[in-house]
Write the structure tokens for this entry.
Amino acid sequence: MTQHPSNEIAAHDQHGAHGAHGEDSLPEIPHVLRQTDIDPRAARRAERQVATMFGLSAVSTILFVVAFVAVKKDSVINLPVIGPIGGQNLALGMASGLALFLIGAGAIQWARKLMSDEEIVDERKSFSSDDETRDAVVEKFRQGTDESGFTKRPIIRRTLLAAMALVPIPAIVLLRDLGPLPEKKFRTTTWAKGKRIVADVSYKPIRPEDIPIGGLVAGALPADIREVEELQGNLNERAKATIILVRMDPSEIRGQQIPGGDVDGIIAFSKICTHLGCPIALYQQRTKHLLCPCHQSTFDLADKGDVIFGPAARRLPQLPIGVDNEGYLVATGDFQEPVGPSFWERG
Amino acid sequence: MTIAQRAAATTTTWIDDRIGAGKWLKKNLRKVFPDHWSFMLGEIALYSFILLLLTGVYLTLFFNPSMKEVVYNGSYAPLNGIKMTQAYDSTLRISFDVRGGLLVRQIHHWAALLFVSSVSVHMLRVFFTGAFRKPRELNWVIGVGLMTLAILEGFAGYSLPDDLLSGTGLRIAQGIVLAIPLVGSYVSTFLFGGEFPGTDFIPRLYSIHILLIPGILLGMLTAHLLLVWYQKHTQFPGPGRTNKNVVGFPLFPVYVAKAGGFFFIVSGVIVLISALFTINPIWMYGPYTPDQVTAGSQPDWYIGWLDGAVRVMPNWEIVLWGHNLSLNILVPALIVPGIMFTLLGLYPWIEARATGDRREHHLLDRPRNAPTRTALGAMGLSFYLLIWISGGNDLIAQAFSWSINAITWTIRVLLIVLPPIVFVITRRACLGLQRKDRDKLLHGRETGIIQRLPSGAYQEVHAPLTDDAKAKILSARESYYEPIEAGPAVDANGVAAPKKGRLARRLSKFYFEQRVTPPTDEEIAEGQHHAADDLATVRPAGQITSGH
């Protein structure tokens, strides 16, 4: 680009570096003298500033070690605006943060005030090689190909390509034993006929009269969940079996997945969102809507648990429930469809 | 010679005798680096990555990536006696029982947030200034890869402590894996060693987080920096800066001091933030259990757009012949991000098709001088921001007492309507700015001095531009393209022109049909002549021009 017109007004100070390397019409690179270039006192002042920052950094590092030993881990400091904050975290962080920051600030101040700030110019070279070199590369490549016989002996070439294409297969096969096959795992839960329903946390069985009309049990599980977890050593069953119980006036129920699946207006639904598996418990008593806190899918519990808003595509599965001869709520079977997110084979 | 100089000479001789570093040092000690605040964005990313490696190694000394259940018994009283995994237990110990442990954890988390932020903003800078053009396309692709990995690495990292929030994120990720056609449920049981949550996933994620991804990141980052070094940094237009030179400060001492100092500043600021502001207080969320969730759960900011896309998607699912195709999950979580990152990676070639230009570009574009690119970027950004906002739709609904349904529907409509509007407005704004630049160059800058002509008319006096302003405006010539014209339909021998290149011509027309021609030297000379006439009649020209 040589079309910069030369400019009469470009009379910058005499120290400007010359950018014109072989291109005559380029204007100079502007440069303005700094206070520290002209005034030795300003330079000494800058020098003192830089040294002070480096010195304070060293002091901060020592303070860090002192704080590490001296500040108790349970001390709490009340800061304005920020509020109460752990004293040890604050002391260690402030000391080491300042120690780092001051080295940086000192170095930048040094560079800006005292080091030369005249910009210099380097030429760029094109990255491409000349045609001669390129031809030579092509020739060498051709020579290598000829000497190897790669093009002349197709059977070697083809078998090599086939072998190379197959050789990564073991790496994929080896991943097989990372886990078991899905089989029916996503289709069944530990719920079965006669299993008592217990409230989460207290693990106490629930009687229908414990739930008032309009009430919600935000988390309930099969009575044997802790034994199952002990046996399996994981939380997998809890992740599928967790349910919520709601009670509404039987006349408010507009539809159920399982005809007569309620007990005096108590209905049980899977707590696991059919969208991406978050547990759902935001229940609006008046509308009988259940909202997932993760992606806001909304289900109508008074009408078959159907989706009425949001990204979930499927209703919440209903758990068939009844009462055992001691008057406690029990499941009368497993869910009639898979709980949780969709998967390819779900159907 | 002072002692220091002698020591330096001895050291360099020792090294030079063994690996011949002399030649390299001679060439590179005074290597030129252009200066601009926006060139520091990539530096921030690099320095926060170094900090991440250092703090990450420290955390591995104390963190126990195991999903075996234990009963907590430590300094944080509210959780005493509660069952949790060793991963969560050891994170609590790092936070409450290891002196400085909480600080290092918070530095690690803040540095991660800053890392992804600076990578993203750095990428925007590179995009809007056209720094990705030939010969830097490869480095752009490496950069897109780095950003993708940075997001994955961040997600893997905050999923490790096994607190209620991180477990909820993993549950969602597992749901997305399940939705993959054909193999979803298999991939899920393989990844998790069975069903969710199982006991295998955190140890597996741990080796991915501390070894696999950082290893790849480190390799790609090295390649990224080597290419910047080898190809030399781009520079903004200015007096004396051309496409054939590089103007700036020497590596030694100015850049060593500035970049080295900046490392300490970035680290210092991150540490100070970590001292003052709590991030990811996992003790408040409690241990993960698959039947609990907190309302208003939010991922880290850089996952927000994915979560938002999932939230805003309509609930389409196709069930055919006993198989489920969950478009409600596949589209926002896999297809849209896939398209976005592919387009991003391919962008240098898309634009090169439109310009039809094979030159090397070392002088950066001012965004206004590439109106279509800038408008496309702004359009993409508006789409991203909308789905990012959608990720907080519940918080917005709560803060303003708005209906969540209305917010979701508004964002759905805006996602289709807003990006094209942003495109049109941005392109017009760029063209307008270019016209204004052109006027300035031809007629000078407005001085605010009103002059009365002998005829009685009034006019404003214009003064010539500074060198700097002129060089910047003239750089529009470097960014100027006309649409690629089709050759004659039938050539001299009566052979029909090949149809090839029609796509490129259409693309080129889309990019460059609307354009502002930068003024020629003759036009400028004439313009300046007028401006000088204006000034001469008011006061001596020197008085105005000396103050530039």
User: Anything to note?
Assistant: The two ends of chain A are 65 Å apart (CA to CA). Confidence is low (pLDDT under 50) at residues 1-24 of chain A.
